[in-house]
Amino acid sequence: MIKKLLHTRYRVTDLEKTVAFYRDVLGLQEVRRHTSGRGSQLVFFKAPGSDEEIEICKYDGSGPVVIGPDLTHLAFEVDDIQAFARESAKKGYPLSDGPHPNGRGGAIAFIDAPEGYEIELIQRAKDE
Fold this sequence. Notes:
globular; 4-stranded mixed sheet; 2,3-Dihydroxybiphenyl 1,2-Dioxygenase, domain 1; 8 strands; single chain
């Protein structure tokens, strides 16, 4: 039986640019990095308050990275979407969509990671 989700993997072409985005723009903590037995370069991140990790993988042997529109995304809770948007734009990553109020006092927005993966930002209503 499955016990729990451990990590989600995203394969990229430019490992260091993606690592900088997850660390410096999203504010995630790099918890470890290593090279797998087959030669994949792996970097693992955690978000504050989460147990699951995000694995960023560079493995040229799999060919080019092709990300289809609306295929997958990660979603993160933020305290203040407007403040996040200002800070990420200063770092060269403006929101790609939103923010959009959700009708309950919160909002959602999206930002694109360097390889084109979409990141959803969720600001919960004050009473949630």
